[in-house]
Each structure stands twice: as structure tokens, then as C-alpha cells.
Design goal:
Helix Hairpins; 5 strands; 7 helices; Cytidine Deaminase, domain 2; 2 domains; single chain
């Protein structure tokens, strides 16, 4: 508080005319900050409402579309970052408002010749101002900003959807692998007009290291999919030999893990036959 006392000592040495001018200046500044605080408080309130609505949309979208759920969760994440930034700004605005308010009181007291000490200055600081300042420092921390969007869901983590699988086809494939006891399965995937696998048909089931390949049942433009129970996304020699045959027929080849969270495209399907 020594700086505050030094400031007050300087005020005591000023003429009444200068003190009145200084008081007017700080009054005007306080009004500007007070007005901005009112506007910012309203904005934060609206943002918190938008955040709640975005979280609710994300939760509702989970059983319907994983992509939409992720999109809504990202929107909620962005709004939450905006709220943190605005709350930090709000704390700084309040600190500035307090400063100008304190200067108004000191200039008035200086005109009256009131004596100050450290305790009197400390008593001028509102207790509720300390928490916003601390919150502002916490709010500006961005650690974990790109963590999984679990907070925006208020529930379990979002399903991981491998590239070019729809959520339904991903779940169907994973379920069939589980029902087969985790062994290799051979499936035929059909692509939608966005080039994503939106349906799968399980044709064969094998063991932990191999599965029969139903070459004749696959049409050009479709995708043959099989899983590697060990989770290694690397085509074997047998996979590569069959992949060469499928490639000549315009058939795609993909390898997934048992949870269908990882995918390796060995051969791209022929784009000409995708409707």
C-alpha cells in the first residue's frame, strides 16, 4: 500500500482546482468502464446460454450422428473459450473501475485534508474484486483446450469414427467382430455418394490370423474389409496378393482393428462407379 500512500501524499500537495479537475477526469473514466462492464456482463450471460444450448445439441446428436455431435461439441468448446476470455476482460474492467473510483475518493478526501494510512487504503479494496482477478488469470490458461470434448457432452467420450466410415457402419462392423469372438471377419462395404462406407455385409469369419475371401461376391465400386485382431495396421503378403486382384476390378480394400477405430486403405475403390 506504500504506492497508494505516495499517490495520496502527492494529491495533498495539489491545489483545489487541480483536484477538482482530476476528480472530473476520473469520474468520466469510471463511467466509461462501468458502461463497458454492463455490456460485457450481458454478453457473458448470453454466451453462457449459448454454451448450454450447444452442449444440449451435442448430447442429443450422439445417438444420431457422431459427426454432428463432434461439430456441436466444437461449437460449445469455442463458446466456452469466448466466455473465459470475456470473463478475464471483465475482471480487468472491474479493476480499472475500482482504480478510478478509488482516485475519486482520494481526491475528495485530499480536498478535505483527511489523513490516510495503509489500513484505510486496504479497506477501500472491495473483497469481491479479488476473486475476479484470480479468475482472470485462471481463465487465460489454455492447457487442455484441445483435449477430447467430453466436458461439452456431459457424458461419455464421443465415439471415434474412422475416416470414411459412417457411425452406423462403424458400429455394425465392430459389433459383428465382437459377436465372432474377435477373430478376423471378411465384410463387403457399400459407399454412399460422399465416398463413405455406410453399410457393411459380413460374408466370412475366420480365426485370429486369417479369413476366407469371397472374391466373386464383390462388385466394382464396393470395398472389401477385414480386421486385424492384433491391431497392427499393415497388409500381409496374402492381403497384398488379393489387393492386386481387387484393384484390377475397381474394388477397394480396407483393413481395420477390432474396435474399428483405425483403418488402413490398401486400395481405393473406383470412383467412377460411386453414385
Amino acid at each position: 500500500m506504500s504506492t497508494g500512500l505516495q499517490t495520496y501524499q502527492r494529491l495533498l500537495k495539489m491545489s483545489k482546482k487541480k483536484l477538482i479537475k482530476k476528480e472530473t477526469m476520473h469520474n468520466e473514466a469510471r463511467e466509461r468502464f462501468s458502461s463497458r462492464i454492463t455490456e460485457m456482463t450481458s454478453t457473458v450471460s448470453n454466451d453462457e446460454r449459448r454454451y448450454s444450448e450447444a452442449k444440449e445439441r451435442a448430447r442429443e446428436a450422439i445417438p444420431i450422428s457422431g459427426e454432428k455431435a463432434i461439430s456441436e461439441a466444437l461449437e460449445a468448446k469455442l463458446i466456452r473459450c469466448e466466455i473465459l476470455a470475456r470473463k478475464s476482460a471483465l475482471a480487468l474492467l472491474r479493476a480499472n473501475e475500482f482504480y478510478h473510483n478509488a482516485m475519486i475518493h482520494m481526491t475528495r478526501d485530499a480536498q478535505l485534508g483527511v489523513q490516510y494510512d495503509a489500513k484505510k487504503l486496504e479497506a477501500m479494496i472491495p473483497l469481491d474484486l479479488r476473486k475476479p482477478i484470480i479468475d482472470s488469470m485462471v481463465g487465460m490458461k489454455i492447457d487442455g483446450m484441445f483435449d477430447p470434448l467430453v466436458d461439452e457432452m456431459d457424458g461419455p467420450p464421443l465415439p471415434v469414427i474412422p475416416h470414411r466410415f459412417t457411425l452406423d457402419s462403424k458400429n455394425e462392423m465392430a459389433k459383428e467382430i465382437e459377436l465372432a469372438g474377435g477373430v478376423e471377419v471378411f465384410a463387403i462395404g457399400t459407399l454412399n455418394n460422399q465416398g463413405k462406407i455406410d453399410s457393411v455385409e459380413i460374408v466370412c469369419r475366420g480365426n485370429q490370423t486369417s479369413v476366407p475371401a469371397a472374391v466373386s461376391r464383390v462388385e466394382p465400386g464396393q470395398v472389401v474389409i477385414h480386421n486385424h485382431p492384433n491391431g497392427v495396421m499393415e497388409a500381409s503378403e496374402a492381403d497384398m496378393q488379393l489387393a492386386h486382384i481387387y484393384k484390377e476390378r475397381g474394388i477397394g480394400v480396407a483393413i481395420v482393428d477390432n474396435e474399428v477405430t483405425k483403418i488402413l486403405w490398401v486400395v481405393e475403390p473406383s470412383e467412377e462407379v460411386i453414385e
